[in-house]
Amino acid sequence: MAIRLRDFPAREAAAVRRALATIRRRLERPPAPMPQDLRQLLHAMIARPRPVVDLVSGGAHGACREGYARSAGYRILLCAKAFLPAPRSARAHRAMRLPAVLFHELIHIARGWELDAETFENAWFSAEEGARLPDGNDWAIFAEEHYEGWWVRVDPRTRRVTDYADRFILRFPPPSPPGPKGGWGGRGSGRRGPAAGRSPRGERTGREASPRPGGRASGRTA
After folding, report:
1. pTM of this structure
2. Cα gap 62→90, rounded to integer Å
3. How far is Cα 5 from Cα 28, in angstroms, rounded to an integer?
4. Angle at Cα 23 formed by Cα 200 and Cα 138, nearest 5°?
5. Residue 218: phi, psi to the nearest 5?
6. Is 194's pLDDT higher than 90?
7. Under 8 Å between Cβ of 69 and 16
8. Which residue spans within the chain are E strands per DSSP?
9. Quick check: 180 pLDDT over 70?
10. Cβ contact 112:149 at 8 Å
11. How many angstroms separate the CA atoms of 151 and 148, rounded?
12. 89-108 per-position pLDDT tens digit
């Protein structure tokens, strides 16, 4: 496995391994469409020797005081709140939101912008599993980025998301009003991950060298 765990207590380390196993199973049997190149990047992170992704325990202090996770380069900081049960999970099961949070951050590392991470988080995980729909803050980011991600795009009128082969992924419901700054607690502002810099098959000519607006580190602040 190309994932390295750093500084996690034993119980949290076990939870991270279960979350990775959940993600790996979904990559093997996708619950929704995903570009093949993105699936290959995610599979390489989880199952192959390279690239190596460091998952680091962030506790509940500093950048993790209100956050769930942050990512930059090949490093994901998982905060204490990521290990809490999903609010909408059935009381009998109390599903942890960690798999959805971790999947969101892995999408960022695999070139994903905020629209990409929000799309696949919600297409591959349910609210009961911890997925969070984009709110007004997220839609403001989408607008700044011309309603485009690295892997998908959204029609702002219909909220219909498609990939660049025009395959339908999902349709977002109307956004909730913007929350306070950091609402999801630092879960992502959508910077492309370290694999960015060129299109996997060159299909997006002219955009490969353009930097992310504002140069934000990912780690959703909503």
Report:
1. 0.82
2. 31
3. 23
4. 70
5. -75, 165
6. no
7. no
8. 3-6, 53-59, 69-72, 75-79, 152-154, 160-163, 168-171
9. no
10. yes
11. 8
12. 555 455 789 999 999 999 99
